[in-house]
């Protein structure tokens, strides 16, 4: 079928901010969709609230709306743009849910807009738990014993009918298993069901019998209108059922299915696709298999491009999102050419002659109070993927890709915590699914546990356990001879592991390998297991006999760009954005671009982002192997966050050329002694500070500079172990924690500036000229990590004198540090005095936000500066002043960690960000809150609990709330203040002091917003933590700083409740800058 000619304008709904369960894989799918739709001649309207994405760059769509993803906003955009169709299947669960709401509310019908990719009926069949169950039964497929409930009483009745524990609870229409869990008793059951009913868009939970210990599989399936079907990839979970597939180690292709079992699963997956009615796109079908008898049970089906689709695409080279988009506009699989071979149609199923392993990345260190047990609710924040010729090789490469300080499956001297466990403790950790369980398996094999015993404890398939046992046993045989070393490399051992086992240095092992010609070979990801020539250079390393030749550079210089590795808190999609922009700019400038990264979710690891893609771990060994193979002219380390920066000096010492700001100058910015002298010489104020290496030194510094102090380890990202200490008796504990994270590097102790406004500055330097990108003012006062704070462009309260001081000091520092590229500086302003807090001569996480705000692609220009261009040549010579306001707001994962306190600190906790943009400051802020799922309600009850030192500031704001028409509730102290001022208010008890209290009010749905400036003290902390946690689980917006309260009031005052929300495309905003 040819492409549809009745469609002219298509609206694509994005996935919104990066969140646990919905990562940057949907930026990858959205970018593919935008590119192919524009290429096919469609007018593309994109809606997404996430400024850190590549897809929201203005060149990827004809109209780009960075607006909150709500039905109200989408209605206004549809009314304004009048698209012919909406494509919701590439924006994750967010887009799918919004599409259903648009359909059910009649908006699509009213404006004659068609749903393409999957129609409303197909979405409902797959997502409604009861309808899906009925259809599967009609197909004769087995399902777990289950029932669908909309109330607690229905849920209890179903639990009684099933009649055995544990039970699995799965909310409908949610992402990442949000609200779900495993209940082992009645109390847990009631808690999880209540949470799940709240989380589900349709207040529905599926309660099903436990299949814990069964094997889990996924098939990625694509189907077109002619009923051509392709199984893109089979994926097997290393962890058994009971662990969310996003939190499980996964392997592709499936390793333990017999051919008969695979064919049955394949056939039934296609029957499911047909029965659900997906006929123009991709779906993900999940299965459980009983290891005892091979019995197969269907778990669920996602009628959209999913998290696993990105993994399957990168694993096979088959661009699922692109193909799904083309199918949605009328093409069939036999009409679409395979991009990688350019000789075969897309109806050819991919074949793999290698093994792919994905391992999730967790950040439980950010939430020490959270339960680290893995279950059906997803908790990982990112993932790494590796490719090898065997499971052993792929598995070890994946472990060293995780950026956790490990270099493979043990043998790196970092297993002391597990080694110290008793057998009883070890067995408990083997039974409990958790992020570190693989290292417990390693220790168990060191203690001579058998494969059968480990299977009984973990239920991990014996096939995988046998491979891991072989790796452990091989350790004792490793020695420096060519045959043994080649075997070690074929089994995935890194130079670092071999060095540890042989008591040598990594450099000595590397030198020996090079002298003995024990070098990696490189294979191609070609979709066809070598049957056809692959045009697209997408590589992975192995130690196989055949090595793909290096392709002709056609006289171009090669520049390597190091990506950021797996997403984690502190290092997210913002850095991938910068890497992609470097690749785009340098390719256009005539360079050959080589991307090295190991994150399957990203745009940077799409095969057409750069000239060559190496899907490899970001370690010294792996990067230098590629650098020497490709004879690169230079490496960019500035754009991938802390990961490549930590490698910069090692790469330089190994002989690599680092372009842009030199590693010495990057290190100098982190060297506190050097930087203090530099600031003094430039007459730049700094808070009093000192450097400590141990507790006594820290105590002495704190006594000298005075409390409160800010304690932080150097050379970390995301504020890891950063904390404000107010009293001496608490200092020892926090310094010890910081020392553990710092790993021998110094600990920085600064006097903390209370009641100071924090300011971020992103700017560019070409080594001579310096231009400010933007000065951003934080909403929250200093003391909250910049990645977690809301910030605005332009600034709101800074005087021109202060801004000029910031500009002058920024330029002076860039000059002294010989910056070539991007630089970020953080300042604090207290009583109109400017203090410098931190200098980062690299890309910051605010670069995408600034670039979208000012209409200048800073990362592209920075990359060109690194290869010798000057800013005047690039047409960027002065700071851009914008006639509107933009806000960046952080998005947090607290809903995934019940009971964790949500109060913000100097340690970063957010997973993503959104942007609000409007002509009015207050409205832009309200939009940012709406986009962050913390929408400020326009009416209802507001609960106020304000600490004493903030009461005077809060009083006029509370009075404004009363004038606007809100009903006020408050704890006794705050209520007394309001009564005294003549403001009506209903007093309630503190949780620990009686009832009715805030928990009762939330249960009665009387509270629509909570404003809580936290108190100090043990009782207050327990009460407030309980309240804030309940608010998160109940979806009640909560504001924890007076500054954010003030910004909300400003927005409410300028908001007309009776008018439609104003929307405008990014392209229209940018036109106003010219």
Q: What does this protein look like?
A:
The strands form seven sheets. A seven-stranded antiparallel sheet has the order 14-13-10-11-12-15-16, with helices on both faces. A seven-stranded antiparallel sheet has the order 31-30-27-28-29-32-33. Strands 17-18-21-20-19-22 form a six-stranded mixed sheet, sandwiched between helices. 37% of the residues lie in helices and 19% in strands. β1 (9-13), α1 (25-39) and β2 (43-47) form a beta-alpha-beta unit. The longest helix has 18 residues, at 259-276. With 1074 residues, it is α/β, with parallel strands linked by helices. The protein contains 37 helices and 38 strands.
Supply the key terms.
single chain; alpha/beta; 37 helices; 1074 residues; seven-stranded antiparallel beta sheet; globular; 37% helix
User: Structural class, from secondary structure content?
Assistant: alpha/beta
- The helix tally amounts to 37
Number of strands: 38
N- and C-termini, Cα separation: 44 Å
In what order do the strands lie side by side in the largest sheet? Answer: 14-13-10-11-12-15-16
Fraction of residues in helices? 25-40%
Biggest sheet layout: 7 strands, antiparallel
């Amino acid at each position: 079928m040819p492409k549809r000619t009745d469609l002219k304008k298509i609206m694509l709904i994005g996935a919104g901010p990066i969140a646990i369960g919905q990562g940057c894989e949907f930026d990858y799918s959205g970018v593919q969709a935008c590119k192919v739709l524009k290429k096919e001649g469609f007018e593309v309207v994109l809606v997404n609230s996430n400024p850190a994405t590549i897809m929201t760059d203005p060149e990827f769509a004809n109209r780009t709306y960075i607006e909150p993803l709500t039905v109200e906003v989408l209605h206004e955009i549809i009314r304004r743009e009048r698209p012919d169709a909406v494509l919701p299947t590439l924006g994750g669960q967010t887009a799918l849910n919004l599409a259903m709401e648009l359909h059910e509310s009649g908006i699509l019908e009213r404006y004659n807009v068609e749903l393409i990719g999957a129609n409303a009926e197909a979405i409902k069949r797959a997502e409604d738990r009861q309808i899906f169950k009925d259809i599967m039964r009609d197909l004769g497929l087995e399902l777990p014993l289950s029932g669908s409930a909309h109330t607690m009483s229905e849920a209890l009745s179903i639990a009684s009918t099933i009649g055995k524990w544990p039970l699995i609870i799965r909310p409908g229409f949610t992402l990442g298993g949000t609200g779900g869990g495993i209940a082992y008793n009645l109390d847990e059951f009631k808690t999880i069901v209540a949470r799940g009913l709240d989380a589900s868009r349709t207040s529905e939970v599926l309660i099903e019998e436990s299949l814990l210990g069964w094997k889990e599989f996924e098939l990625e399936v694509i189907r077109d209108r002619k009923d051509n079907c392709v199984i893109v990839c089979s994926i097997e979970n290393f962890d058994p059922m009971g662990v969310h597939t996003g939190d499980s180690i996964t392997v592709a292709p499936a390793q333990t299915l017999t051919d008969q079992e695979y064919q049955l699963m394949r056939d039934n997956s296609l029957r499911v696709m047909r029965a659900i009615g997906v006929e123009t796109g991709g779906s993900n079908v999940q299965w459980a298999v009983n290891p005892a008898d091979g019995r197969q049970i269907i778990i669920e089906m996602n009628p959209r491009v999913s998290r696993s689709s990105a993994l399957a695409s990168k694993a096979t080279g088959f661009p699922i999102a692109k193909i799904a988009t083309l199918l949605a506009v009328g093409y069939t699989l036999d009409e679409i050419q395979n991009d990688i071979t350019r000789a075969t149609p897309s109806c050819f199923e991919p074949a793999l002659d290698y093994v792919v392993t994905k391992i999730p990345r967790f950040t439980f260190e950010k939430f020490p109070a959270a339960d680290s047990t893995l279950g059906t609710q997803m908790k990982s924040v990112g993932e790494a993927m590796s490719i090898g010729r065997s499971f052993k090789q792929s598995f070890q490469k994946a472990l060293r890709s995780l950026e956790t300080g490990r270099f493979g499956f043990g043998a790196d001297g970092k297993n002391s915590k597990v080694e110290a466990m008793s057998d009883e403790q070890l067995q408990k950790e083997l039974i409990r699914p958790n992020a570190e369980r693989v290292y417990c398996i390693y220790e168990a094999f060191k203690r001579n546990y058998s494969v059968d015993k480990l299977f009984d404890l973990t239920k991990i398939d014996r096939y995988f356990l046998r491979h891991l046992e072989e790796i452990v046993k091989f350790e004792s045989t490793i020695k420096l001879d060519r045959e043994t070393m080649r075997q070690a490399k074929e089994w995935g051992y890194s130079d670092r592991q071999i060095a540890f086992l042989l008591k040598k240095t990594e450099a000595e092992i590397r030198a020996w390998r090079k002298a003995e010609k024990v070098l990696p070979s490189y294979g191609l990801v070609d979709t066809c297991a070598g049957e056809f020539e692959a045009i697209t250079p997408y590589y992975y390393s192995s130690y196989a006999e055949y090595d793909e030749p290096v392709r002709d550079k056609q006289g171009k210089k090669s520049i390597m760009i190091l990506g950021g590795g797996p997403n984690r808190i502190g290092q997210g999609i913002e850095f991938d954005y910068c890497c992609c922009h470097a690749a785009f700019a340098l390719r256009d400038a005539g360079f050959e671009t080589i991307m090295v990264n190991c994150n399957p979710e990203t745009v940077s690891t799409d095969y057409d982002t750069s000239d060559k893609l190496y899907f490899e771990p970001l370690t010294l060994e792996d990067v230098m192997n590629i650098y020497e193979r490709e004879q690169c002219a230079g490496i960019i380390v500035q754009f991938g966050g802390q990961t490549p920066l930590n490698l910069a000096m090692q790469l330089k010492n190994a002989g690599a050329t680092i372009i842009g700001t030199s590693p010495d100058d990057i290190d100098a910015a982190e060297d506190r002694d050097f930087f203090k002298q530099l600031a003094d010489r430039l007459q730049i104020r700094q808070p009093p500070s000192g450097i400590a290496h141990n507790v006594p030194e820290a105590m002495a510094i704190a006594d000298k500079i005075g409390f409160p102090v800010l304690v932080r380890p150097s050379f970390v990202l995301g504020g890891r172990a950063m904390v404000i200490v107010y009293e001496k008796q608490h200092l020892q504990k926090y310094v010890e924690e910081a020392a553990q994270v710092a790993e021998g590097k110094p600990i920085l102790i600064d006097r903390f500036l209370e009641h100071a406004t924090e300011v971020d500055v992103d700017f560019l330097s070409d080594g001579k000229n310096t231009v400010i990108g933007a000065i951003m003012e934080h909403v929250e006062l200093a003391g909250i990590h910049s990645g977690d704070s809301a910030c605005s462009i332009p600034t709101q309260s800074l005087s021109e004198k202060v801004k000029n001081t910031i500009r002058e000091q920024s330029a002076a520092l860039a000059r002294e540090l010989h910056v070539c590229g991007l630089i970020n500086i953080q300042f604090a302003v207290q009583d109109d005095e400017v203090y410098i807090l931190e200098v980062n001569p690299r890309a910051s996480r605010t670069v995408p936000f600034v670039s979208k705000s000012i209409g200048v692609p800073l990362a592209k220009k920075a990359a060109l500066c690194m290869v010798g261009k000057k800013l005047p040549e690039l047409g960027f010579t002065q700071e851009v002043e914008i006639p509107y306001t933009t806000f960046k707001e952080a998005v947090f994962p607290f809903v995934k960690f019940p009971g964790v306190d949500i109060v913000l600190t100097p340690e970063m906790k957010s997973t993503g960000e959104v942007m609000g943009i409007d002509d009015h400051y207050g409205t832009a802020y309200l939009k940012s809150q709406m986009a962050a799922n913390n929408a400020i309600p326009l009416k209802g009850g507001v609960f106020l609990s304000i600490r004493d030192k903030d009461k005077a500031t809060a009083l006029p704001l509370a009075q404004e709330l009363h004038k606007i028409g809100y009903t006020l509730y408050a704890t006794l102290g705050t209520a007394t203040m309001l009564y005294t001022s003549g403001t009506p208010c209903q007093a309630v008890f503190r949780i620990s002091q009686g009832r009715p209290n805030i928990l009762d009010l939330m249960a009665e749905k009387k509270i629509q917003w909570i404003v809580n400036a936290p108190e100090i003290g043990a009782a207050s902390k327990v009460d407030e933590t309980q309240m804030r946690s309940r608010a998160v689980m109940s979806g009640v917006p909560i504001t924890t700083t007076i500054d954010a309260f003030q910004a909300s009031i400003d927005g409410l005052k300028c908001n007309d409740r009776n008018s439609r929300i104003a929307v405008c495309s990014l392209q229209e905003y940018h036109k106003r800058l010219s």
